Amino acid sequence: MDPEQRIKIHDPQILKLAAQQLFESVQAPRNNINGNNSLFTRNTLLQFTANPIRVIACAILAVFGAAIIASFVVGGGIFTPTDPTWRAMQQRGSWRVGMDPSFPPFELLDEHGQMAGYDVELARAMAARWNLRLELVPIGFDSLLDALQTGQIDSIVSALPYDPRATQNVRYSPPYFEAGIRLVVRADSPLLSQSIVEVEQFSALLANQRLAVEWGSAGDMVGRRLQQAAATIELQPFSTPEEAVSALLTDASIDALLVDNITLLTMQGQGAAISAVGPALEANPYVIASPITAPVLQQEIADALQALSADGTLQGLTIQWLR
């Protein structure tokens, strides 16, 4: 038969006709006890199979029905997603996590050469919830996504910023830590009394203010954007974030500081009397990445993070490793 003459079931018109035939078929008289009005008499069956539209309709119904039965038998519900990564984890009894141990305090090598840090403890707590053994795989940061996509690891837990450009290739968890740029002031600053809900409010709040920034940092770039909205904002650059924090604490002419949340928490842990005002001016959430083919694992990670947030584990990790 010429391929062009074959019926293609993906043709919308064919599918429409198939659905109509299917509806008419199920409305036909049912078999009775004597078989007088049997739908599937020999002649009717021959007529039925001679009609390709009805054959397609029955095939669709059969495949759909088989899928429903299989989903209830295997997955416990309709349209349960398959996940080869989660299945392999259960069979292997372990969760293989890739991380780059060169970004303290989230991941580092301790005095014994073992990986330690916020992310290590987070991954360990999650694996324990699933009754799985944690396998830590040290990988350079630039190679983490390649390792994930080639199946060398099951997930990335490595202070990984959310990247919307990668959502076609990986599945991201909800954020577990916000590392973005914060507006930081002294503990006695009048700016602490201001109610800031939207990022757009910062420009008006900071008019005629002098802000300390680390030269060339993300905080510096955020400050330059604020200057475009309020030209009276003045930026005072410093070589390191520690110098910028010190200037805020010792120089009365510095009104505030733009710095990342990690530096803020670390300096607070060292006793600096500073606080953040409002939300992050520029978000930088850390997330966990899993293969695009791992919807079950993605949901399990989301559930685990929610539970660890609710029971105080995440806050405890922040205090342990950043304060």
- Using only CA atoms, what is the Rg? 30 Å
Broad CATH class of the largest domain: Alpha Beta
The fourth-level CATH homologous superfamily of the largest domain is Periplasmic binding protein-like II
Uncertain regions: pLDDT < 50 for 5+ in a row? 1-19, 25-42, 67-79
Main beta-sheet strand count, sense and barrel state = 6 strands, mixed
For the record, the CATH architecture of the largest domain stands as 3-Layer(aba) Sandwich
What is the straight-line distance between the termini? Answer: 75 Å
Shape: elongated
Count of extended strands: 13
Commentary on this structure:
The protein is of the alpha/beta class and 323 residues long. The protein folds into 3 domains: 3-75, no CATH class; 84-177 and 285-322, Periplasmic binding protein-like II (D-Maltodextrin-Binding Protein, domain 2); 181-282, D-Maltodextrin-Binding Protein, domain 2 (3-Layer(aba) Sandwich). Helix content is 43%, strand content 20%. The protein has helices spanning 12-27, 42-50, 52-75, 84-92, 118-129, 144-149, 201-205, 218-229, 241-250, 261-269, 295-310, 313-322; strands at residues 94-99, 108-109, 115-116, 133-138, 155-161, 170-172, 177-178, 181-186, 210-214, 234-238, 256-260, 274-282, 285-291. Helix 8 (218-229) links the parallel strand 9 (210-214) and strand 10. Helix 1 crosses helix 3 (52-75) and helix 10 crosses helix 12. It is elongated. The model is unreliable at 1-19, 25-42 and 67-79 (pLDDT under 50).
Concise summary:
With about 325 residues, the chain is of the alpha/beta class.
